[in-house]
Inverse folding.
């Protein structure tokens, strides 16, 4: 029996399709629905092995810290917007949603959130907004399938 469904959302068309599947399943099974968005601070972005950024001059360090903090604020605001859109879609279908926002590597955070919060099923898209990172690091959906303790449905 499915009682709790988790849907990773990243704003992609594929994640939107997975959300549609999850809404259908939640209504059909009487399950609760949760959404998760994982922000990736710039320090987790994929870079070629052995590459490190150049050291800035001392007078730029303060400005770079401010820029970094501003980037994080923008990334978090974008994540909150993605979660709000998913919540609105679920509410329009008559469901309430638990919203989760995490920071770090998406696959690891999705697997941990599903385990920590007792989800029976993860419904996710086969591709998201990962771009070149997927080629360098591997597919988020593949990693979730391999490591999640619950069932995983990949929506196409």
């Amino acid at each position: 029996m499915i009682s709790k469904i988790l849907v990773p959302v990243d704003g992609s068309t594929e994640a939107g399709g997975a959300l549609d599947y999850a809404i259908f399943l939640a209504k059909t099974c009487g399950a609760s629905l949760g959404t998760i968005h994982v922000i990736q601070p710039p320090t987790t972005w994929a870079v070629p092995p052995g590459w490190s950024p150049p050291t800035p001059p001392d007078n730029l360090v303060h400005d770079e810290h401010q820029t970094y903090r501003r980037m994080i604020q923008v990334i978090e605001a974008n994540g909150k917007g993605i979660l709000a859109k998913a919540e609105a879609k679920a509410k329009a279908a008559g469901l309430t949603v638990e919203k989760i926002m995490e920071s770090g590597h998406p696959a690891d955070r999705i697997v941990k959130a599903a385990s920590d919060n007792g989800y029976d099923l993860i419904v996710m898209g086969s591709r998201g907004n990962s771009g070149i990172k997927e080629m360098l690091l591997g597919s988020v959906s593949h990693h979730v399938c391999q490591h999640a303790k619950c069932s995983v449905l990949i929506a196409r």
Notes: The first strand starts at residue 4 and ends at 8. Residues 58-92 form the longest helix (35 residues). The chain has a mean pLDDT of 86. The two ends are 23 Å apart (CA to CA).
